[in-house]
Structure formats: C-alpha cells, structure tokens
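Chapter summary example.
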Amino acid sequence: QVQLVESGGGSALAGGSVRLSCAASGYTFNTYGWFRQAPGKEREGVATIGRGGYIKYADSVRGRFTISQDHAVDTVSLQMDMVKPEDAGTYYCAATDRASVAQALDPNRFAYWGQGTQVTVS
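The structure predicted for these 122 residues follows.
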C-alpha cells in the first residue's frame, strides 16, 4: 500500500524558514513533488524531483526553496527559506510515474497524495 506521510510545517515569521518532510512507503516512484493550496485558490506545484536527479521549481519559490531526496530512508524534503506570507497554505507531498519534466508541476499528473501539512507565515 502506497503511503506518503508529511511532517514538519507549522508557523514561521516572514523571512524565516520551515522544513517539510515526506516519508514514502509501499512503492518507489519516478517523481515526487510538493504542492500547496491556499484557501480559495487552486492547488499549485511548488517543487518536484525526479529519478535521474532533475529538479523543477515554481517561479515563485525558485532561489528560496530547496527540494531534496534521501533514497536511503525514502524521504523527500522541502526546505523553505525566506518565507513570505504568500507561501502560507496546506502543503502536500505527491508522487507519480506519469509526469514528464514539462508536466512535473501539474498536480493532475500526480495520483498519490499525502494528507497535507499546514504552513502559516506571519
């Protein structure tokens, strides 16, 4: 059974840092991603990492967020630095074998999702 379990999140001051982790089990996917959804807004891709090492970031977080993967413990992490109020929302870890590099930030290409973890920025 595939499971994606997020941890981390919480509150941060603008300009501060937050670290999210996603523990994956049950299957090893080609691509893992972090997505977020703010109240009243659509879910959007934040960062993804694929087999072979490619990484893709949303323009809004490039240079501030870092996605990484630890294959030894099947964990994908998102280091969020210099956070802004607009970074607040529910963050989801997701996985897929069906996203090309061009589709890597498209939530519709991801079939497996974690339960989400909340990030607030004040």
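To summarize the output: The longest strand covers residues 18-25.
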